[in-house]
């Protein structure tokens, strides 16, 4: 069974959907806070305890056996790329600033699809655990490759996940990478940031000491 999680209130509710209950509407109007999701990526307020995670600042990645975390940093220790690898599959992660009460994944997804179409790639939308995903086969220097974009809207943040390889072509092969995505924790600071600005990521202390300014 596929589960679709909406996290931005009623903005994206279709006309055919049942309206929210009066109690729910009053609750949302009262504090503007959506209920805690059943699974992550979690806002730090809802993150389960007693889980070992790699702390990258705005993003915490659960330590899962079989998942290799590759981090590329600049000389200042700021993280420029985070990729999780499991066998023939990879998952690239990004986290961005978003409005408090409005999701931006729908708009971002449309722009990704438009850019792909301009390059002669015809992406298609599929429904996944987090709602609408974008699936495409793109040309790379190594030949055609499958990619799958997943977006998760949270309070004042959005996670963009890009599956590559086997997990992109066949979502049932996400395996531990899917578990890692469900276990992500986003730590949104209180700084006002432009919508879509990448949230700051940094090398964990143990990585910085081991191999500074290099891909780890």
Overview of the structural elements:
With 216 residues, the protein is an alpha+beta fold. Helices cover 19% and strands 32% of the residues. The chain has 5 helices and 11 strands; from the N terminus they run αββββββαββββααβα. The protein has helices spanning 22-31, 105-118, 166-169, 176-183, 205-210, and strands spanning 42-43, 53-55, 59-62, 68-73, 79-86, 89-97, 124-128, 131-140, 143-154, 157-165, 185-186. The strands form 2 sheets. A 7-stranded antiparallel sheet has the order 4-5-6-10-9-8-7, with helices on both faces. It has a 4-stranded mixed sheet with strand order 1-11-3-2. The chain is globular.
Q: Which shape, going by the Cα principal axes? A: globular
Helix-strand category: alpha+beta
The proportion of strand residues reads 25-35%
Unreliable spans are 1-21, 23-28, 212-216
What's the number of helices?
5
Give the integer mean of the pLDDT values.
Answer: 85
**What percent of the residues sit in helical stretches (DSSP H or I)?**
10-25%
Number of strands: 11
The biggest sheet amounts to: 7 strands, antiparallel
Order of helices and strands: HEEEEEEHEEEEHHEH
* Strand line-up across the major sheet: 4-5-6-10-9-8-7
Please state the CA-atom Rg, rounded to the nearest Å.
Answer: 18 Å
Q: Determine the N-to-C terminus distance.
A: 37 Å
